[in-house]
Structures are given as C-alpha cells and as structure tokens.
Amino acid sequence: MSKATKEPTYVRIAEDIRNRIRQGDPPAGGLLPSEAVLARTYGVARGTARQAVAELERAGLVVSEAGRGRRVVGESGAGVPRAASARYEKIADDIRKRIEDGSLPHGQQLPGEAAMAEDYGVSSGTIRHAFQLLAAEQVITAIHGRGWFVGGPEHTQTRADQVAEALRKEIEAGQFAAGSVLPGETVLAEERGVGRVTVRRALAVLEAEGIIEKRAGKGRIVKALPKGQ
Q1: Does the structure show a pLDDT above 70 at 81?
Q2: Cβ-Cβ contacts under 8 Å for 56 (sequence gap 6 or more)
Q3: Residue 5 carries which DSSP code?
Q4: pLDDT digits over 2-27, tens only?
Q5: Which of 82, 89, 109, 193 is the most buried (most CB within 10 A)?
Q6: Is the bond preceding residue 226 a cis peptide, omega within 30 degrees?
Q7: Which domains does the chain show, CATH number per domain?
Q8: In terms of Cα–Cα distance, which of 88, 54, 94, 60 is closest to 74?
C-alpha cells in the first residue's frame, strides 16, 4: 500500500531540481529560477513551487539572497569563482540593456545557449547562468520545451509563430491567391532563414487555422479566406 502512495508534487519537483543541480543546471553559484518561473515550468501553483524550493533550502542546496533570489550552493557547498560570476553578470547586463533599448523586443525568442555562448566567447553554462539571473528578475521567461523569451509568457512568440504570422499577412494581402500552391518547405526555409522544422510548424499553425490545407501529391494549398479578411 505504501509503495503505491505517491509522493507530494512539491517533493517530486524538489527531487527533479536536485538532480538538475547535480548535473550543473543551474551550476553552483548560479541563481535558481524564481518561484513564478518554476511554477510555469512544472505546471503547478506558485505555492507548490515555493514548497519545493523550501525543501531545497532545508537540504542546504540553495540559500536566499536579499533582493536577488535563491543562489545554488550545490552538494559540495562550493560556489563559482568570482571571475566566472563577473562574466555571466556582465552578459546578463548586456542582454538587459538590449531589451531596454528595444533591440530585443518583448515576445522575441532568444537564441539558444550554444549560439549565445559562441557570440560571447563563453561556455553554455555561463550563458545559462546569465539567463537564470534575468529570469529571477522576471526580465525573460523560460517556456518548457520551447526556450527563453523576452518578457512574460503572455507575449512569447517562437520563430515558427513569426513565420506563420508573416505568411498569414502575405496570404491576406493577396501575394498567395486562393487555390495557389505554397512553395515547398525547403524553399520557404531558405527564404525565411530558418530550418525546415520551423517552417513545418508554421504551416501546421496555418492548417489548424484553416488558411491552408495539405493535399496529397500537391502540397499546401491556400484556401479561400472568409469574407471580411
């Protein structure tokens, strides 16, 4: 009977976070995502996320810092060197300024950790640490399975969303007439500067909206738009 009893949700979340800390995500010395971010990531109430964080604090894996959030201590109790700390904080500051001046608008998806690491000449872990610092400040948001976005989750827009929106506007403007065949995924990917998977997801959005339809042997056909569009 006891084996069938499930652990409380907050305990399972705390264990998952503990395992991620052991794997260096976030690394010792890094900031734990805020309760709001954890709640969205795990799809639970903020109170449940708070209980999970409290478990980690009781275990000595994280400590609270006034005005900053919870910093990961790690099971070894070791932090990160000050030089590494300065790097991620400087990168976070640069990203923050780009958001403030509009270079990175709300809703835009940030490049992946690997791409950002190459741009800044640092490790992916340093970029992850910078992202987590900004997330703790609620400047950016992590959407599970999608990536990092500027601002809150209500404004997030993936590259697929952006491609779908651009195609939607082109169809509404008559650039693709009703009954015409859209270019193939490879052509669209090259034109939009994205991968085929991104194009495929964008087309799936338009299919779900009834703007285009997929016909065997022909491709994606533009459907007649409802009157008023």
Answers
A1: no
A2: 14, 17, 18, 32, 62, 70
A3: S
A4: 444 577 899 899 999 988 888 777 77
A5: 109
A6: no
A7: 1-77 (1.10.10.10), 81-157 (1.10.10.10), 159-222 (1.10.10.10)
A8: 60
